[in-house]
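so im writing up the methods section and need the FUZ/MON1/HPS1 first Longin domain-containing protein record in one place, dumping it here so i stop losing it
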Amino acid sequence: MKGLMVMNEATDIAFYSVDSQLRAHLHRRMEILENSIGQREEEEDLRGLLTTFFAPLTTSFNVLTSMKKPLFSITADDNFLIVFKKFGEHVFVAVNGDGSESEDFLVRKLHVFNRIIGLLYGPVLGRYI
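--- predicted struct ---
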């Protein structure tokens, strides 16, 4: 279960890429949440699910970073590893749920992804993501 997201300062998702296993896991978790509160929503799009699950974490990351108490990674239930990295005005988030990637590898993946985006879009990056 792997995913990569780019969120802006308002925690809107500018880019995401998740595999089918992570997508299915998020749908299952949303069903459990909806059943526990007694509401049943229509099928949500994946962007909405990602925002529901990761916006609070990204907001916490932004607040802690502004307080000079940076948070770089979280190990959640089910051995999910979530790594955050801020580049400019965007927060990059990498997720691994199957234990196949370490924290160092996810940090490197975020650096490489940022570099590729910078090479593709250059100084006008803010317009595209």
